[in-house]
Amino acid sequence: MSEHDEVEHPKHYTSSPSGIECIDVVEHLPFCRGNAIKYLWRAGQKGEGDAATIRDLEKARWYVEREIASLRKKSKDAPTHPRFGQFCLKCGETGAPHIIGSC
Questions:
Q1: What is the DSSP letter of 7?
Q2: Cβ-contact 87, 77 below 8 angstroms
Q3: What is the pLDDT of residue 4?
Q4: φ and ψ at 85, to 5 degrees?
Q5: Neighbours of 16 (CB within 10 A)
Q6: Per-residue confidence at 31, pLDDT binned at 50, 70, 90?
């Protein structure tokens, strides 16, 4: 097995100058937080251009918003962000006038 085996150790997850592999960090985190970090980690590393980098950053944002929504759902006293309001886990809609869960 080479250092950058595409299944065991893909280059876009092992190319950090720190020598740390992404999985060694994210496996200790809750799912959505780990996935957000995974997409941030690999953004721009696959050599597929700006569109792929933007897509990875948007995926990271999606997981962060989902994690925030999950925490808000668990905690009624959690603050809502003035721009995003609440995030509907069902359809992904954010903020007013969307009524969370009405979709």
A1: T
A2: no
A3: 59
A4: 60, -130
A5: 12
A6: very high
> Is 87 strand, coil or helix?
strand
Quote the pTM value.
0.64
Are 60 and 40 in contact, with CB atoms under 8 Å apart? yes
Token pair listed for 85: 């309001």
Per-domain residue ranges of the chain: 11-74
Phi, psi of 81 (to 5 degrees): -75, 135
Alpha carbon of 78 to those of 60, 63, 67: distances in Å?
22, 18, 13
Sequence-ordered list of residues with C-beta below 8 angstroms from that of 1, at least 6 positions apart, any chain: 8, 9
More confident residue, 7 or 81: 7
Structure-token match 């085996």, residue found: 5
Give the separation between CA 67 and CA 13, rounded to whole angstroms: 22
Q: Specify burial of residue 88 (Cβ count, 10 A radius: 0-12, 13-18, 19+).
A: middle
Residues 13-26: tens digit of each pLDDT: 667 777 788 888 89
